[in-house]
From TrEMBL:
Acetylation among keywords: no
Organism this protein belongs to: Halomonas gemina
Ranges where the record places region Disordered: 228-257
Domain ABC transporter: 4-219
Record's protein name: Metal ABC transporter ATP-binding protein
Record bears the keyword Nucleotide-binding: yes
Length: 257
């Protein structure tokens, strides 16, 4: 049974259809990247998975006991509010000091616990958000443009860290990114979204797909020449999904019995 199954998901926001006919299945241990133009529904899909957005139609079924860690696209902290990293990580609920230490180590920022959150660099803050998500020991880690504002080196380091976290926790990772070159390298599977799923499969297959090239241009194919690596997992289904028409009704996030 997949870790998370999404079947025929439709989401409407402000009276407009934002996602339609989404079929997506995630397995434990795989790193899947969501790419797509601005406004294509990537954040909405993640927010629907965590339950912050209600689907208009469709099914989301999680593996029994599924725990999700979420790193949002942005989180504004009031600059006038004195708060240490440890205090921030203890919101909304307290964790044992050892768990905080471990999460900071896993996020590669050990020793930042006493630092003021407002004094952190952008890259450090992203890692604190990652530590916060890891505190929940997630089976599924959702990252929404988690490397925004990082330089190339910081971005590459961040994705390397995600690969380590996946190895250590055995969790699945679903991440949104616009840094196609880097994420393609870091992903087992790429899902190209433009309100519906245009194509999905290994990075190589998606780069070669006409639907992807129509969105991003044909020259992005060179990206993988630098980053090609051997995938240690079997390919996911590379076939393009066909959007299905919306049907009436509502649904809620379910967990399989
Ligand atoms: N609360 C909302 N009410 C109405 N429309 C919304 C709301 N949130 C998002 N939208 C719209 O839904 C569409 C998808 O937005 P979403 O943020 O999911 O896209 P995205 O692919 O993550 O974009 P980006 O790459 O720019 O972050 C956009 O057209 C956006 O304007």
């Amino acid at each position: 049974m997949p870790l998370l199954s999404i079947d025929d998901l439709h989401v409407a926001l402000g009276g407009r259809t934002v996602l339609e006919g989404i079929d997506l299945h995630l397995d434990r241990g795989e790193i899947v990247t969501l790419v797509g133009p601005n406004g294509s529904g990537k954040s909405t899909l993640l927010r629907t998975i965590i339950g912050a957005v209600a689907p208009a139609h469709g099914r989301l079924v999680g593996h029994p006991g599924l725990t999700i860690g979420y790193v949002p696209q942005r989180l504004a902290i009031d600059a006038t509010l004195p708060m240490t990293v440890t205090r921030f990580l203890n919101l909304p609920r307290r964790h044992p000091p050892q768990a905080i230490r471990q999460a900071l180590e896993q996020a590669c920022v050990p020793g930042l616990g006493r630092q003021q959150v407002t004094d952190l660099s952008g890259g450090q803050f992203q890692r604190i958000l990652l530590a916060r998500a890891l505190l929940e020991k997630p089976d599924l880690l959702l990252l929404d443009e988690a490397t925004q504002g990082l330089d190339h080196r910081g971005t590459a380091d961040f994705y390397r860290q995600i690969a380590c976290v996946r190895r250590e926790l055995g969790c699945a990772v679903l991440m949104v990114s616009h840094e196609l070159h880097v994420v393609m390298r870091a992903s087992d599977r790429v899902v190209c979204l433009n309100r519906h799923i245009c194509c999905q499969g290994t990075p190589e297959r998606v780069l070669a797909s006409p639907a992807y090239q129509a969105l991003f241009g044909p020259d992005t194919g060179d990206a993988l020449a630098f980053y090609r690596h051997d995938h240690d997992r079997p390919d996911s289904d590379p076939s393009a999904s066909t959007p299905t028409p919306p049907a009436a009704g509502t649904t809620r996030l379910e967990t399989a019995p």
